[in-house]
C-alpha cells in the first residue's frame, strides 16, 4: 500500500473511531445523567440568561450542539417553547459545544489505553446500570482520544509534502478559502466537533522549519469559522417539514454562526494575537491545539454576548426569512401534536413530549364524555358525529404513541428508571384509550335506540346523564392525579368509584321497575344493561388510573420542574 492510501485510510479510520467514541460518550452520559438532564431542561425559562445557561449545560452533556438544536426545534414544533426561548438555547448550545475542543486540547496520549482499560473494566464488572454507564463513558472517552491520536500519526508525513504545504499556504493566506474548506468538511462529516478535532491535530504538525505549525493560528481561525457555518446544516435538515417557528429556530442558528463568521473574518489577525496573548505560552506546535480551542470558545462567547440583548432583532430577522403565511406541512388532527422522531436519541426530552401527547389524549376523552352527558342524555346527530370523530383520532394517536414507545425501547436509549416510568405511562395511555372507546360504545348504543321505535324514557335518560356527569367528575379527578396534582385525595377518588357502582345498581333496579310499570320497553333491557356495563368498565379504568397515581407514576415525572 502506498503512502497516500495509508494516510487516507488512517485519517478516515481515526475519524470513525473519534465520532464513534463521541456518540457513545454522549449516549452514556445521557443515561448516567438522565435526571440531571431534566433539571437542565427546567432552566428553559423566559429569562434569556438562564436559557443560554441551559443550552450550554445541555450541550455539554450531549456533547453535540446539533443534538441540542434538534431537541430545541422539536420543542418549538410541539409548542412547548417560544421562539425567543429557543433562540437563547441556541446561543448557549454554541458555547457548550466548545467543551469538546477544550477537552481535546489536553495532551493525554500517554493515558489513552489506561482510560480504555479502566472504562472497560468498570462497565464489565459492575452490575449497577449507573456505574456501568459511567464505565462506558470513560471507555468512550478513551476511544475519542485514540481516534485523535490515530489521525495525528497519519498526518505527520503531510508536513513534508511540498504539494500539501503549498496548498495549505494558499488557504492560510486567503481567509475566505479557509472558511469554505471548514464549511465543506463539516457538511461532509456532520459534526463540527470532529472537524475541529481534525483541525487541532493537523495544526499541531510542524511545518518545513520543524518548529512552527504547518498552518498557524491565523490560518486555522478561518477554517474554524467555516466549521461553525457547516454545523448549521443539521439544524436546517431537522426543521424540514416542521412548523414555521421550528424553521425559524433553525435559521436563528444559521444567522448566529454566519454573522459571527463575517464579523471575525475581518478580525482574523488581531483576534489571533489576542488568543495567543491569553493562551499558554510555549512552542507553537505544542500550544496551538489549546489556542484553537480558546479561539472556538472566544468566538461563541463574544457572539452570544452580542446577540443576547438583540434576541428581539434575531426574532424579526428569522420572521422575515420565514414569513407568516400558509403553514407548510401542517399536522392533521389525527397526527401527533408533540412527538418528534428526531428526539428518540434524547430520551429525557422524548419522554417529555410523550407525556404531553398522552395528556392531549386525556383531554380528547374528557371532551367525548362531555358530549355524552349534555342534553339530558339525548344523543343528537351532531354530538354523535363529534364523539365518533374524536374516537377515531384517539385510536390513531394511541397507535402513534405506542410506535414511539417501541422506537424508544428498541433504540436502547432508556435507563432502567425511564423504562419503568414509560411502562407506567403506557398503562395510563391504555386506560385513557379504553375509556374513550367505551364512551363511543355508549354513544352508539344510545343513539341506535333513539333512532328506533323503542326509545328510552325521560327517567332513564336523566339517570344516564347523571351517571355520565359522575363519570366525567371522577375521570377529571383521575387525570389531575396522574398529572402530578399532589393535593388529590386518592381515598376520595375510590369513594367516588363506589358511588358509581351504587348508581349502576340503582339504575338497573329502576329500569326493571319501569319495565314492570310499562314506562320502559322490555326490549331495551339488553342495550340498557350494555350501557351500564360500559359505565362500570369506565369506572374500573378510572380505578386503574388512581392505582397508577398511588404508585407515584405521574406525568410530572417526565416534565422539567418549574
Protein described:
The protein is mainly alpha-helical and 562 residues long. The chain is built from 23 helices and no strands. The longest helix has 36 residues. About 1% of the residues have low confidence.
Question: What's the gist of this structure?
Answer:
With 562 residues, the chain is mainly α. It has helices spanning 3-32, 34-41, 48-62, 65-77, 83-96, 98-104, 112-125, 129-155, 162-173, 175-189, 192-203, 216-230, 232-239, 244-265, 268-278, 284-307, 311-321, 347-372, 381-411, 416-451, 458-482, 490-517, 525-550. The protein is 77% helix and 0% strand.
Task: Lay out the secondary structure.
Blueprint: H1 3-32, H2 34-41, H3 48-62, H4 65-77, H5 83-96, H6 98-104, H7 112-125, H8 129-155, H9 162-173, H10 175-189, H11 192-203, H12 216-230, H13 232-239, H14 244-265, H15 268-278, H16 284-307, H17 311-321, H18 347-372, H19 381-411, H20 416-451, H21 458-482, H22 490-517, H23 525-550
Helix pairs in contact: 1-8, 3-5, 4-5, 4-13, 4-14, 5-14, 5-16, 5-17, 6-11, 6-16, 7-8, 8-11, 9-10, 9-12, 10-12, 11-12, 11-16, 12-14, 12-15, 12-16, 13-14, 14-16, 14-17, 15-16, 18-19, 18-20, 18-21, 19-20, 20-23, 21-22, 21-23, 22-23
